[in-house]
Design a protein that fits this description.
- The protein has a seven-stranded mixed sheet with strand order 3-2-4-1-6-7-5, sandwiched between helices.
- The protein has helices spanning about 10-15, 30-45, 55-70, 90-95, 115-130, 145-155; strands spanning about 1-5, 45-55, 75, 135-140, 155, 175, 185-190.
- Helix content is about 35%, strand content about 20%.
- α2 runs parallel beside α3.
- α3 (about 55-70) links the parallel β2 (about 45-55) and β3 (about 75).
- The protein is an alpha/beta fold.
- The chain has one domain (about 1-135, about 150-180): 3-Layer(aba) Sandwich (Rossmann fold).
- It is built from six helices and seven strands, in the order βααβαβααβαβββ.
Length: about 200
């Protein structure tokens, strides 16, 4: 019994380091990544349900996985990326010296860290409730900061898994045990990909 946390495939916004709008689609590389992670999961897991953020890049990734598994996905707004409000559509260079990830930074028209983390925690509670009804694997397709928040604040890192600077790359797989204390047994793994993607934008 496991929960898989999957970050969506690459977009042009990731590649260009642009803070993305909800409707941003996967690019060609991202679609290829989605296919590869779908094959990987279908070959190794007995997937019983697929939940996904309703942002387009996550939807497209989830649909690729669902097609392989012959299971329709469920789209949920609580699995969205942190809302950067008026900064969406701007490049990191345009923003300049603003630290998007500073604890006290609140993007205009967007979510504070506190609000975002509160949403992530509530979403995790709903995910674990959903898992109680399943015997197979539950796949969650979501976003980089969402997964990082869970890893850093909610989940327990399994024995032998360490990191200095965590990068949750596009279509990385993080595997979590399906019962408390929610131990991470695979951390942001991208072995199914031919090339790493960590230098692009995270949001």
């Amino acid at each position: 019994m496991t929960i898989l946390l999957i970050r969506h495939g690459e977009t042009d916004g990731n590649a260009s380091r642009i803070i993305q709008h909800p409707e941003t689609p996967l690019n060609a590389r991202g679609r290829a990544q989605a296919t590869k992670v779908a094959i990987k999961i279908s070959e190794e897991r007995n997937v019983e349900a697929v939940l996904s953020s309703d942002y387009r890049r996550a939807q497209e990734t989830a649909l690729e996985i669902s097609e392989k598994m012959k299971i329709p996905p469920t789209f949920i707004d609580s699995l969205r990326e942190r809302n950067f409000g008026d900064l969406r559509g701007k490049s990191y260079d345009e923003i300049g010296d603003v630290d998007l990830f500073a604890e006290d930074f609140v993007p205009p028209g967007g979510e504070s860290w506190a609000k975002f983390r509160e949403r992530v925690e509530l979403a995790w509670q709903n995910i674990t409730e959903r898992k109680k009804d399943l015997r197979g694997t539950l796949v969650i397709v979501t976003h980089g900061l969402f997964i990082r928040s869970l890893i850093e604040r909610t989940l327990h890192i399994g024995k032998g898994l360490t990191y200095d600077e965590l990068i949750v790359e596009n279509t990385s797989i993080t595997c979590v045990t399906g019962t408390p204390p929610w131990e991470v047994t695979v951390l942001a793994n991208t072995d199914h990909l031919d090339q790493k993607t960590g230098e692009g934008g995270i949001v």
